[in-house]
Amino acid sequence: MGWGPPAGSPFAGAGANATNAASGLPFAGIPSELRERVERELEHEPEHPAPEVEFHHVDPDPRPFTLRTFLQPHLGALVVAAVLVIVETVALTAGPFITRLAIDEGITPGEFDTLLAISLVYLASIVVNALAGRARIAFTGTLGERLMEQLRIRVFSHLQRLPLGFYTEEKAGRLMTRMTSDIDALTQLFQEGLVQLAVQALTLAIITGVLIALDPLMAAVTLLLVVPAMFGLTLWFRSASDRGYAAVRDRIADVMADLQEGLSGVRIITAHNRRRHNVVHHRNVVGAYRDANDYTAKVGAIYGPSTEAIGVVGQAVILLVGGRLVLDGRISLGDLFAFTLYLTMFFAPIQQIVQLYNQYQQGQAAAAKLRDLLGTPSAVVERADARELPPIAGGIVLEGVTFGYDPAAPVLRDVDLEIRPGETFALVGPTGAGKSTVAKLVTRFYDPQSGRVLVDGHDVRDVTLRSLRGQIGVVPQEPFLFHGSIRDNVAFGRPDASDDDVREACRAVGIDDLVDRMPDGLDTPCHERGVSLSSGERQLLALARTFLYRPRVVVLDEATSNLDLQSETKVEAALDVLLDGRTAIVIAHRLSTAQRADRIAVIDDGGVVELGTHDELVVAGGRYAAMWATYASHLGEERTSSTGG
Fold first, then answer.
1. How would you write 487-509 as a 3-class SS string?
2. Which 3 state secondary structure label does DSSP give 597?
3. At a CB cut-off of 8 Å and minimum separation 6, what does 43 contact?
4. pLDDT digits (tens, 9 = 90+) for 531-546
5. CB under 8 Å to 187, separation ≥6 — which residues?
6. Are the CB atoms for 471 and 389 separated by under 8 Å?
């Protein structure tokens, strides 16, 4: 199938632009004046078949991430690159030797034919160098892009398998840094850095051998004068730059984290008049990043000119020693000329290696950050022998469950709980008592430290995550809408669903009138996080998404707590349709929601302190009865106030 404007693409929603602009909504899609040009471009687009993607809940490569382990599977391609590097380097370093032959065999004896032949050989070496360089750049560039594609997919896949607790502790900006600046640093290293490092190192080795062959005395002077000074300076630079580039990677992560937080919280920042304060704070964060870069620049400023000075001193000494040898007749003029040219080429690779070492250090620092990320284990691991969970009726049992986000501070202690198939079961209790924790254990977002969670008698740790979560739907308190069309968001759990299935889900939850009012119907784009929709509309879309997913168990994290009365009525009607015949776990912040449940569990003090129907718990006169009395009192005051009392 050729590529066209799919549902949810910017092009598909282009017709909504004028409506959005008129209503003050964010712009999305392609401007109408550009539609014809876009259509013409799309006619010439090549076919893009759907890629085959495999996702593993366990990292298929458990080895620590290093440059060696990452490059090892591509050893054959690296050998080809090495051959191209060798050909390119040999052709590059042949010039001074050919010049020596031209002087001693052609110019000095006056042999023009010999000089012409040597010149043609020189020209051929230049052509070989150019062709090998072109082939090497094209090959290593393609290889580097393929490596980076694999690395980005590997990092993103690992982020998908990490537990929810990881994201509560780690800043989103830091994670963005891993996928942007860190991988960009490795891109530069793989595409040019490592290859150029090999070219310059091989060049240095060849030149050293040629210098010794031309004249051992001058080679000894060069190596004894230049190499020790260069070696000592390089050791210092390595230590200093290691610290510098590690600090640079940390500081850019801070910049990205602060930027992400400032953008996500811009409404709160504006409402609390904190814009100036945040600018000052960000200036300090950026200042720390600048200081880290200034340090690396100062280190480089010391190292670069120092190596150049050492090189100039070495050249002066060689001219003095070599000139004396020519006068004494111990070497030819061609030998001295070739030695001087090779000496110039000898210093250039050293200086290049220094610059490449900077790049290498940046890549190593980035690799260390990625190694830490990829080495972060998942708290929920699918067993190798996990079996498929068969279609379930929806019975859920917690047996002796103890769990804490910090194992030293359990939220739940030795909890026993049974939820019957098809039952609407409400969890109530004070904030932080563990209501949401019970739901997260059922969906296996976490595993208990002790005890078992059973679904229809199956331990959730013994079944595949796909088959478990394929039968459990979650409707959060704050529904998340993704960038794309209404169709994309409703069919998020079943991307192969037909338009008729999507419309049926919308009708079932009572949102079909909203879709009909939209300028492009199901193709209408949802802006970032659904900001163009009301809270009630976003929640209804989330319910339609869950309805289309067809789960046997539904987890509701108080889906009506942030809605006005009219929206709440619509959502409650949609919930009646959604929950019909399904097991429902309702995390209830409003007792009016709990009142409608078949049974209610009061969670507090690390366990279930009360269990029963609404009427039974009110009659029992326990904690739920006290909560209900308080709620009824507040509800009565609100009604009195609204009627003018």
1. HHHHCCCCCCCCHHHHHHHHHHC
2. coil
3. none
4. 667 777 888 888 888 8
5. 144, 145, 148
6. yes
Model-wide pTM > 0.70:
no
Determine the straight-line distance between the first and last CA of the chain, rounded to whole angstroms. 67
The arithmetic mean of pLDDT across residues 85-97, rounded, is 80
On whether the CB atoms of residues 241 and 358 are closer than 8 A, the answer is yes
Rounded distance, CA 319 to CA 326, Å?
10
pLDDT reported for residue 11 = 41
Task: Select from 530, 484, 487 the least CA-distant residue to 506.
Answer: 487
Tokens of 325: 């040898």
Two tokens, residue 112: 């023009």
How many angstroms separate the CA atoms of 163 and 611, rounded?
A: 31
Give CA–CA dist 498/508, Å, rounded: 15
- Report the b/e string of 236-246 with b at 16+ CB within 10 A: ebeebbeebbb
Measured CA to CA, the distance from residue 429 to residue 609 in angstroms comes to: 10
**Which of the four pLDDT bands, split at 50, 70 and 90, describes residue 642?**
very low
By DSSP bridging, strand 553-557 and strand 583-587 are parallel
Confidence of residue 12 (pLDDT cuts 50, 70, 90): very low
Query: At 423, is the pLDDT very low, low, confident or very high (cuts 50, 70, 90)?
Result: very high
Q: How many helices and strands in the chain, by DSSP H and E? A: 23, 12
H helices within 375-485, ranges in order? 435-442, 465-469
Supply φ then ψ for residue 2, to 5 degrees.
Answer: -70, 160
Which candidate, 559, 621, 636, places its Cα nearest to that of 590?
559
Nearest to 447 by CA among 457, 462, 433: 462
Helices 535-549 & 499-508, crossing angle to 10 degrees? Answer: 120
- Looking at residue 558, what is its pLDDT? 72
CB atoms within 10 A of CB 206: 19
Q: Residue 11: left if φ>0, alpha if ψ -120 to 50, beta else—which one?
A: alpha
Q: Which two tokens stand for residue 303?
A: 């190292």
Cα–Cα distance between 18 and 563 in angstroms, integer? 29
Tell me the C-alpha distance between 312 and 219, whole Å.
Answer: 16
User: Two tokens at 76?
Assistant: 């054959």
DSSP label at residue 534: -
Q: Take residue 286 and report the two structure tokens written for it.
A: 């950026």
Question: What CA–CA distances, in Å, run from 558 to 282, 435, 454, 567, 582?
Answer: 36, 11, 24, 14, 17
450-455 and 458-459: which strand pairing? antiparallel
388's torsion region: left (phi>0), alpha (psi -120 to 50) or beta?
A: beta
State the Cα angle at 545 between 539 and 548, rounded to 5°: 140
Please tell me the chain's helix, strand, coil percentages from 3-state DSSP, rounded to the nearest 5.
65, 10, 25
CA atoms within 13 A on the CB side of 425: 26
CA distance 234 to 549: 61
Radius of gyration in angstroms for the set of CA atoms belonging to the chain, rounded to a whole number: 35
Contacts of 411 (CB under 8 A, 6+ apart): 403, 404, 405, 432, 433, 434, 437, 606
